[in-house]
Specification:
The protein is an alpha+beta fold and 311 residues long. The chain is built from five helices and 14 strands. Helix 4 packs antiparallel against helix 5.
Length: 311
């Protein structure tokens, strides 16, 4: 090819005197020929770079892949306060193991204690009034000469005593209610679990409907793995298909999964960016698996790569 190109170039220069072209045009044509020859004589190859981490090796000859997320078996437990108030103390931190009944945090209860003291004082005054009215009524009832007192006066005193007793019971109920409010100022764990998040600080004002919840708990002795299977692959999913989960970015970390159930209702794929204008055009079938704690760290909310055997 090179010999032919040189021969054509020599012939071109030999016949140049008949072409009557300026030297600038000659050099331009020569540059085009040289560029064409250079491009055709070189091979431009792009060398593919090796991945930072090796992809997970498929555990089955034929498999269906999906993304998954680690959940608690009983799902996360959002612990909120019974009523709005200012946080007085926080007793736990993230990662702590708590037993059922362990105090988690406490709201400021000084105002509620003052209300309780005021109600108790009112109760004591009402109790004294009841005792006084009861003595008066008993004296009237015990008179030997009933004609000395009008029957209407005795009946009126009986009604006063009845009303006083009713007011006394009302105050007793208010004391019980106020003590319950004071008891609810201290929030305790309903179950034995691990603390996933603590979203409050001492001195912070929180609402009973706060989001996210002040404390989030989860039981992590057994994991629930929620796998999203694309709707295109959904027809190939059957109950009790074996599956393996791999950590993202580390193909050597894997563990088997135990089939639990298939949730028959397809949902939009939640691969979200947080944009409120976001739209979904993919729906997924969710499969629930269980997994025991592996010998490497695994965290709630962690994403996994899952391969399900295709039968």
């Amino acid at each position: 090819m090179l010999e032919k190109f040189v021969k054509n170039l020599v012939n071109f220069f030999r016949d140049f005197k008949y072409l009557r072209l300026p030297f600038s045009t000659l050099f331009a044509i020569l540059g085009v020929f040289l560029a064409f020859f250079y491009i055709n004589s070189k091979e431009f190859r792009i060398t593919a770079k090796a991945p930072i981490t090796a992809p997970a090796s498929k555990p089955f000859n034929s498999s269906i892949s999906g993304t998954a997320i680690v959940e608690s078996v009983g799902k996360n437990i959002d612990i909120a306060s019974y009523y709005s108030g200012r946080v007085a103390e926080v007793f736990i931190q993230e990662g702590a193991r708590v037993k059922a009944g362990t105090p988690l945090f406490k709201l400021n209860d000084l105002e509620d204690k003052a209300k309780l003291a005021a109600i108790q004082a009112e109760y004591e005054a009402q109790l004294a009034m009841v005792k006084n009215l009861r003595q008066q009524y008993q004296r009237l009832e015990n008179l030997e000469n009933k004609a000395a007192v009008a029957a209407q006066d005795i009946e009126s005193k009986a009604l006063e005593l009845e009303k006083a007793n009713a007011d006394l019971k009302r105050l007793e109920a208010k004391i019980t209610e106020q003590k319950l409010i004071l008891e609810h100022a201290l929030i305790r764990s309903p179950v034995s679990a691990t603390v996933l998040q603590v979203n409050i600080r001492e001195g912070e004002y929180i609402s009973a409907s706060a989001h996210p919840a002040p404390i989030i708990l989860a039981e992590d002795s057994l994991y629930q793995i929620r796998v999203d299977i694309d709707e295109i692959n959904a027809p190939y999913i059957k109950p009790n298909q074996p599956a393996f989960a791999f950590l993202k970015g580390n193909s050597e970390k894997k563990f088997p999964l135990k089939f639990v159930r298939i949730e028959p209702y397809m949902v939009p794929k939640k691969d979200l960016t947080g944009n409120t204008a976001e739209r979904h055009d993919i729906r997924v079938l969710q499969i629930i698996y269980h997994a025991t704690k592996p010998d490497f760290p695994l965290y709630m909310g962690q994403q996994l790569e899952v391969y399900v055997e295709r039968t």
